[in-house]
Amino acid sequence: MPRIRMPQNRFLPKYVSGFESQHGRERLVFRRKGEKKLYFKAAFGTKEFAEEYARFLTGDEAQPVVQAPRHAPGSVDDLVTRYFAVPTRLGPSEVTQAKVRAVIEDFRDAKGTDGIRRGERMVRDVTFEAIDKIIAKKLIKTGTGNKAKGGIHAARKLRKELGRLFRFAAKVGMVDRDPMEHVEKIRVPVAQRTKGFHSWTEDEITQYRGRWPVGTRERLAMELLLWTDQRRSDVVKMGRAQVRNGRIPIVQEKTGKTLWIALAPQLLEAIVAMKPEDTSPFCFLLTKRGGPFKKESFGNWFKRACVEAGLKHCTAHGLRKATLRRMADLEMANKPMKSVSGQSRDDTLAIYTEDANQVMLADAAITALARWEMTRDLGETDDEYRFTAND
Known about the structure:
This protein is mainly alpha-helical and about 400 residues long. It has 14 helices and five strands.
């Protein structure tokens, strides 16, 4: 019987990889961090394989019982264990949960001057003064580059997560009074405030397109970022097979939200122009080796494309800001903008739209006020007056 080659890993579902056994058989295995490996019995592409995969995803397969470490009742370790018991307390997605978990783990694993881990201390003994000193220490930035630790933003994140942790402690009766109650907010000095990632201008978008024509991976990457308004972690997972009725479904890695985004003609043009060997049904963007990008490597690769286009100050995330800036320039309401970006809060959205054309928006606002006053002088009611950006 002829041997059937297993598909390359890039076509396999999430958490699934393949290998060749010592007997020369091709096997598939389900690997997810923190869980035991699960081996598929059914052949890839069959109904039985899909059923096995669904069971592995939901955890219905028998898993080894892992005994949780015992901690002294009422200790910080006990509090953290109880807090982590419901992952959604940490955030809406696995990515956010992992980041929050790291902040709290770092807090409880640190040792005091007496050599005792914070996790071993009793929650009732944690004081405002102790927390205040811990956060003040976190404010001091040490190291550079990837080894940098601490700083204003790290201290703000620590304060936020400890606030949530000790509010939970108060709810479950582990403390009578929240030690975070009087810990003051950390404000970024004016001299250190930045606008974050640079928002691409229209001239910069045109310049990039001039360097990377349709048919190149670099052009397709830019159009995907610009027209879907998603993060790099979501863009690298997009592919033709997902498209339904002219829209692409996106489950945001950071928020867990599901969005359906219509494919703009400019994006479709960039997709259609790609050579078949440079893309795959499940992934628009492939590396030179033919596999999907990881979000980190994609960011570095796209940055190099920007530098080659003479835009060394531009980044992938800056295109997400550019899309929202465009919508703000068109005076779109917050709700339509959030329906594309997936953001929930107006104050977060405002950070992305602050680079909107202030002159144009101010002109429109003054024109609207002037015309409103003139209509009132003519005896028209407010309900009869309507101003639009196209007037």
